[in-house]
Each structure stands twice: as structure tokens, then as C-alpha cells.
Amino acid sequence: MNTVTAAATLLILAKEPVPGRVKTRLTPPYTPYEASALAEAALTDTLRTLLRVPARRRVLVLDGTPGPWLPPGFDIVPQVSGGLDERIAGAFALCGDGPALLVGMDTPQLTAGLLADVGTDGHDAWFGPAADGGFWALGLAAPSHAGALVRGVPMSTDHTGAIQRRRLVEAGLTVFDLPLLRDVDTASDAASVAGLCPPGSNFATVLDSLPEVTR
Hints:
Elements: E1 9-15, H1 32-51, E2 57-63, E3 75-78, H2 84-92, E4 100-103, E5 125-129, E6 135-140, H3 146-150, H4 160-170, E7 175-177, H5 187-194, H6 202-209
Parallel strand pairs: 1-2, 1-4, 2-3, 5-7
Antiparallel strand pairs: 4-6, 5-6
Helix pairs in contact: 1-6, 5-6
């Protein structure tokens, strides 16, 4: 079992919230501009949550260009090319020694308390399953092993999360399971997730501001 008890490097894998390039499954009923506003709000909430989690380093691994939504406290690096498995492996390759945790930008209901023990609880890996069969978080005590653990996992399927977790177990890692969370992919997801967001959530505020006819 891993004995590392250091604060983790926190990675967020994200896409610049540009209309027509993000949250395309929200259109319709939302317009591309409304969908991008929701994506920006979800990203902003996630970034602010990670600022409240103890960390050695915080890194935004970005497809695109930073905007005014980015708070201070993050290093910015571009995503590598390739499929999602390659981009996840590339993000972990930035970390060097010590534990690292990667999250996406689609779970604005995430709270700092859910991540407080990552890197300090003696596990080898941390896994956050998503309700759609994927995963919203992946943490490794030895991020240099990420390539072998992630590359080749089929992404964006109903079984992605199960396959990825099995990879961790088959590699002999002790895995801590984080809570199941729902990604924001569809309008139904958006409504459900907004109701779970903590007070002051940008995501819930933006959703409430949209015309009722678009829901």
C-alpha cells in the first residue's frame, strides 16, 4: 500500500467555454450561447472549489485560451493532442512526484470536503464514478504510472468508469471510491445538478437566469 501523505497536485481538464464548442448536448433546448454560459459557470464553480482544497500545486489543463473566468492560483498548460485517454495521461505527466488528482469541469456540485483526504489517506488511487457510466475524478499516488493505467480505456461509453476502475485494481492498487456524481451533459442533468449545488453556485444562478421557455 502507498504510504504517501502529502497534499496532491490538483488538475482540472477543461475546454474553453466557447459557444458551439462546449456542452453541445445542451442544444437544444438551450442555444449555443446559453450552453456556453452554463459551461463557464460550471468551470468557475469547479475552479473555486479546488482553491479550497489543500494542494501542492493547482493546474488547469486547458483546450483553448484562459478568460476572465479564471481565478488566480492556477498554472495553465495546454492539453496534449489525441483522444481523451491521451489527454488524461498527458495531464498526469505534468505532475512529477507525489499524489495527483484530476477532475473535469462538468460537476459544479463538487465540494472541497469530498476531496479533503486525497493524497493523505494512504491509498494508491482515488476514483470518482459518474452516473452516466464514466468518471468525474481520477487520482494516483504515483502519477508517472498514469499512461499505462489510462491509455486504451474506451472513453465516453456506459462502461468507461467500470473499465478504468478495473484497470486500477488489476494493477494491484488500493482504490478509494469517491461519491457517485452526475455530470452535466443534458438539460435534465443541468436541472438536477443545479439543485445539488452549494449556496452561491454560479451554475445554479446562471441556470435560474435563463428563460423558462428554454428548459
